[in-house]
Amino acid sequence: MRKHWKYILAITIIVVSAVGGIIVYKQTRAAENSELYKVKRGKFEAVLSCKGEINGIKATEIRVPKIIGDRDLELWELTILDLVQDGKSVKKGDFVVQLDASKIMASMRQEMQNLEKEVADLNNVKIDSTVTLSNLREEIKNARLDLEYNKIDLEQSKFESEAYQRKTQMAYQKAENNIAKKERDYLLEKNKLKVRVGRTAGWVERRQKKIAKYQEAMSLTRITAPEDGIVIFGKSWEGKKFSKDDAVPTYEFAPAIATLPDMSKVLSEIYVKEIDIAKIKTGDSVRVTFDALENVTIMGSIKNIARVGEDHKDFDMKAFKVIIELDKTDEGLKPAMSSNNEIIIARLENALLLPVTAVFKNNGNPFVYLKKQDEVIQQPIITGPENEEFVVIEEGIEEGDIIVLEPPVEKVLVTKN
């Protein structure tokens, strides 16, 4: 019986060993047959790609004439009745935009009605002043005659009693006081009427000046090009290009209706998402290409990054405006042309590179599967910048190391502590 159990035990050990060997063999073959990558060095470049728009660094702005934006006129916005085609070449003095003058005309008519009323008021005030002052002067004249009569009585009273003399003297003094009072009243009334006439005349003058401003504004609703160039229409605060029937704000700091860019020096305006803005800085090199121009590539650099993000229709988060200045121009470049901008955020000449797919993470810590002879080791690494294909390895592996690109079977894996 004991001998029988020995046979069973021996057979069991043989079977288990055989099965284990087969499993290990298959797992080892699986590791050997996995796709491998030999670590090597090479040039590396990481870029941030953004769409943009081309414009001249300098541009002549075409704005609503200042007189139309005068606060006195209260013309806060005017409608565009007609305009030239966006991107059209124009000469100095050529038509660009026609603004609706109906609001100006209506306001001017109202001012003219107000002016008629105020002119009539001014005339009435002048007539009243003339009549009032004439009456006062007549009263002063009569008071002086009374004084003369009292003077005669006073001179004749020397032949009369002392009481009568005293009475005539008091009458004379009273007549003198009356003249002084009437002269004072005359001066007060004259000054009061002068102020009234001046105030009413001032209203009339202001109305006349305002009407003159309306007339000047009317003549400037037809806006022409201040110089030769290509017309590029501006955008409203909502980011929409001005077009026919749009309302254009007239105040001083409103957006320009259009510009005439100088394309001898060119910039590209782009917007960068807030999650990427920390990757770039002023001075970074930029490679710029254009959908409309084949085989044209122009280098540039970041000149300005907005300090504050803003809402943008093409992003679901805040975006920052970035200005890129191109190193040169090209005769084919036109204002508002689309540009493809590759901001070079990293460039290395001799970097240790691995495919992005070869790097794995454990609790946020990167590692690779390093093959050493018949073993596969989980090797921790320190990574640098990366692009769509490769990641730079700073520590953990060396040039020539063999990396397994797929996770091996656990039986073959050896974890490095």
Summarize the structure.
This protein is an alpha+beta fold. It is built from three helices and 21 strands. Strands 1, 15, 16, 17, 20 and 21 form a six-stranded mixed beta sheet that branches.
Structure notes:
Helix 2 (102-156) runs antiparallel to helix 3 (162-219). The longest helix is centred in the middle third of the chain and has 58 residues, at 162-219. The strands form four sheets. Strands 1, 15, 16, 17, 20 and 21 form a six-stranded mixed sheet that branches. A six-stranded antiparallel β-barrel has the order 2-10-13-12-11-14. With 417 residues, it is α+β, with helices and mostly antiparallel strands. The chain is 35% helix and 35% strand. The two termini are 50 Å apart. The model is unreliable at 15-33 (pLDDT under 50). Among the domains are: 64-100 and 221-255, RNA polymerase II/Efflux pump adaptor protein, barrel-sandwich hybrid domain (OB fold (Dihydrolipoamide Acetyltransferase, E2P)), CATH 2.40.50.100; 105-215; 263-348, Beta Barrel (Elongation Factor Tu (Ef-tu), domain 3).
Q: Which features characterize this protein?
A:
417 residues; alpha+beta; Elongation Factor Tu (Ef-tu), domain 3; 3 helices
Residue-averaged pLDDT, rounded? 86
Strand content: 25-35%
Backbone structural class: alpha+beta
Helix content: 25-40%
Helix count equals: 3
Gyration radius (Cα, Å) is: 48 Å
Poorly predicted regions are 15-33
Topology:
Blueprint: H1 2-33, E1 36-38, E2 40-62, E3 77-83, E4 89-90, E5 95-99, H2 102-156, H3 162-219, E6 222-224, E7 229-230, E8 232-233, E9 247-249, E10 258-273, E11 285-290, E12 293-305, E13 319-326, E14 338-355, E15 360-362, E16 365-372, E17 375-380, E18 382-386, E19 390-395, E20 402-404, E21 413-415
Parallel strand pairs: 17-21
Antiparallel strand pairs: 1-20, 2-10, 2-14, 3-5, 3-9, 4-7, 5-6, 8-10, 10-13, 11-12, 11-14, 12-13, 14-19, 15-16, 16-17, 16-20, 18-19
